[in-house]
Amino acid sequence: MPLDLTGAIGVGLRVPHYRHIFAHRPDVDFFEIISENFMVDGGPPLENLERILDRYPVVQHGVSLSIASAEPLDFAYLKRLKALARRTGTPWVSDHLCWSQAGGRHYHDLLPVPYTLDIAKFIAEKARVVQDYLELPFALENLSSYVSFAESEMPEWDFYREVVERAGVNMLLDVNNIYVSSVNHGFAPLDYIADIPWERVLQLHLAGHSEQPDGSLLDTHDKPVKDVVWALYREVCDRGGLIPTLLEWDDNYLSFEETHAQALLAKTHRRDRVAG
């Protein structure tokens, strides 16, 4: 029976929180794992993962697929990813609409592409193959972006929709990334969500960001979600309903209790909007 996470609120699984989670077994709807951290043959990562799987649903989110790279798909990587998905029972697998490697080099960053129809077609074909190979729903996440390209033919949201609809795949919609990019590139965030195909949105991400001296924003995942992002989240919920939501926190860690409390704020914001 497929795992139903409708309305669930999750937290990213991070090593600094293991001790508390294993000792206290907090009531958490689901954990999201970074797939690459567990694509290993054995040892403590998998031992810890099994302890989590004994009690909690787990969703997989990747950072290394590099689907927008000009290079072909890495089927050795996909084989390991699929094996991990079978172990975790994840209801879907996600990664980023970006490239992160070229010429055999890994850049350890999530890099954007020009928004053109030809590039959308190229990525969509690769995304279709990934979903078929994994035999699970596959979702692509929108980036926070800091550069734009003169070659772009359409706004980011049209490009994003073009890719997922051509591929028949899904969206992992990062609400904070929409807001960060809207400030950095001068568009209205409500324009981004105005024409989202909500039936394709499997999951939402929330996180904190930082403001730079020049007024630009960085998606740092090390602060509470800003009020302006909560406001956008309420608008997203108004349109999309009870989409599973995850809080990302990846630096300047709080205690697990504080982190989970930050995540659970989503229920208050969503309840007000959905109920209304």
Summarize the model shown.
With 276 residues, the chain is of the alpha/beta class. Helix content is 40%, strand content 18%.
Number of domains: 1
Helix content: 40-55%
Strand content: 15-25%
Largest sheet: 8 strands, parallel, barrel
Per CATH, the superfamily is Divalent-metal-dependent TIM barrel enzymes
SSE pattern, N- to C-terminal = EHEHEHEEEHEHEHHEEEHEH
Textual characterization of the structure:
The protein is an alpha/beta fold. The chain has one domain (9-275): TIM Barrel (Alpha-Beta Barrel). It is built from 9 helices and 12 strands. It has an 8-stranded parallel β-barrel, surrounded by 5 helices. The protein has a two-stranded antiparallel sheet with strand order 5-6. Strands 10-11 form a two-stranded antiparallel sheet. A hairpin with a 5-residue loop joins strand 10 and strand 11. Helix 4 packs across helix 5 (156-167) and helix 8 crosses helix 9. The longest helix has 20 residues, at 256-275. The protein is globular. It starts with 8 loop residues before the first strand and ends with a helix.
